[in-house]
Amino acid sequence: MMEQFFKMKERGTNVKVETMAGITTFMTMAYILAVNPSILGQTGMDQRAVFTATALASALASFCMALFANLPFVLSAGMGLNAYFAFSVVLGMGYTWQQALTAVFVEGLVFIVLSVTNVREAIFNAIPNTLKVAVSVGIGLFICFIGLQNSKIVVDGATLVTLFSFKGSIENGTFNSAGISVILAFCGILLMTYLLFKNVKGSILIGMVALWVVGMILQAAGIYVPNPDAGYYSLFPTQIFDMPASLAPTFGQLDFSFIKTADFFVVMFAFLFVDVFDTLGTLIGCASKANMLDEKGELKGIKGALLADSVGTIVGAVLGTSTITTFVESSSGISEGGRTGFTSIVSGLLFLVALFFSPVFLAIPAFATAPALIVVGFLMLQQVTKIDWNSDLLEAVPAYICIFAMPFMYSISEGIAFGVISYVVLNLVGGRGKKITPLMYVLAVLFIAKYVLL
Predict the structure, then answer these.
(1) Does residue 216 surpass a pLDDT of 70?
(2) Where are the membrane-spanning stretches (predicted)?
(3) What's the pLDDT score for residue 1?
């Protein structure tokens, strides 16, 4: 029965590989269970309720991904979208978190319409293959940058970003927290790379667990010293088991009076725009990495994947969390061999388990998960060889723009936008207007309008 549904043999995988992939994906994105309540909590939302809502919505959306599309993608509350929810809509514009949840809810409904009517699928298929490869490469650099930030290897500086200063950490007395964490992150990159070189199955997951264990040993020896004020917590869980918090403070807290205002459509469209193109970008990048795109550059099962994303967003809004979207960290599980929806099922189950063992999952340090993102970024960067950089500059330059825009503008959707606009403009002025599909023209106009009006 399982083989008939998931078609593991057909995709060259098995239950063991898929299980390891699901665990790996969950481990690399478990941070969202700590980060999302922290961000949304600044709006006045109950953080424990947000934790429960995030875990439940992530599990349900991931199950939908498996059932609707049989793809190894995992979903949760999108980073960036949660920040827009909290800092722009609520704290910036002055709307309540209930009204912001309503905008997310309506955005999810619109998302379903776009999915069922094939609009999003058409957008996916309209993007040229060169740009699809560029999206994969750009995402690789993007998640590498996220990993460098999460590990504190790269920090804020006079040049926007700079390397962590060990000398500075010694002088200000943070070496035993920040400095040790950075050293462990560097060691994690080397360890995971070595395990990949040796073709060890589960290398990324093994590396994360090994780093965590080493960190606990160093803490027990007094070498690593927790500093909660600076964001460096104890590596030992405060307790193992904890009952899930009630959803009552956030469940069904929608305020539809917000719909009557003009700002509602601006807010809702912003949520929709980022969600659509972040999701498409992630699907393109991860599917390209897994060689799931056919000869036309299309992804089988994309309609189900987009529908799962939409359902997750709607359910998440009702439960009490910001937009649910496909996570780029899914690429870590794909790198471990995940090729079917069983990977999503495993990750979804772990989100449910996390409800009862939240102290354990919240104790996983960034220096253990961040190296995984950096190494996966390298694996996704390998796709760059599929782009012809010499014979056709009108194809290569938009790909280049798409690639650098994602990490430097810190947004998958911005990378797609600049890639599409530059592709249309360059090919149009280069006398190859007939090569551009009508939908690409529409997308370019919409992207330009977005920058002018929003």
Answers:
(1) yes
(2) 21-43, 49-68, 73-94, 100-119, 131-155, 175-197, 204-225, 264-285, 306-328, 348-381, 393-424, 436-453
(3) 67
One-letter amino acid at 383 equals: Q
Sign of the Cα torsion 129, 134, 136, 139 reads negative
Rounded Cα distance between 227 and 173, Å, is: 11
pLDDT band, residue 194 (cuts 50/70/90): very high
Neighbours of 429 (CB within 10 A): 10
User: Looking up tokens 């160093």, which residue turns up?
Assistant: 218
| Residue 1 DSSP one-character state | -
DSSP string, 421-435: HHHHHHHHHTT-GGG
Report how far residue 253's alpha carbon sits from residue 137's, in angstroms, rounded to the nearest whole number: 40
Distance from C-alpha of 194 to C-alpha of 269, rounded to nearest angstrom: 45
Q: Indicate the residue type of 365.
A: P
Q: What percent of the chain has pLDDT over 70?
A: 99
- Spell out the domain ranges in the chain: 11-382, 386-453
CB atoms within 10 A of CB 165: 15
Handedness of CA 316, 148, 182, 152 (dihedral sign): negative
Please report, to the nearest 10 degrees, the dihedral formed by the alpha carbons of residues 260, 263, 266, 269 taken in order: -40
With DSSP H G I counted as helix, E B as strand and the rest as coil, what are the percentages for the chain, rounded to 5? Answer: 70, 5, 25
In contact, 309 and 81? CB cutoff 8 Å: no
Give yes or no for a contact between 153 and 163, defined as CB atoms under 8 angstroms apart: yes
Tokens representing 80 are 């960036």
Bridge partners, residue 154, by sequence: 163
For residue 161, the cross-strand partners are 156
Q: Which of 21-30, 145-154, 219-228 has the highest mean pLDDT?
A: 219-228
Q: What average pLDDT does the segment 250-257 reach?
A: 93
Mean pLDDT computed over every residue of the chain: 89
Q: How far is CA 209 from CA 28, 150, 393, 435, in A?
A: 11, 17, 44, 49
Per-residue confidence (pLDDT) for residue 46, from 0 to 100: 93
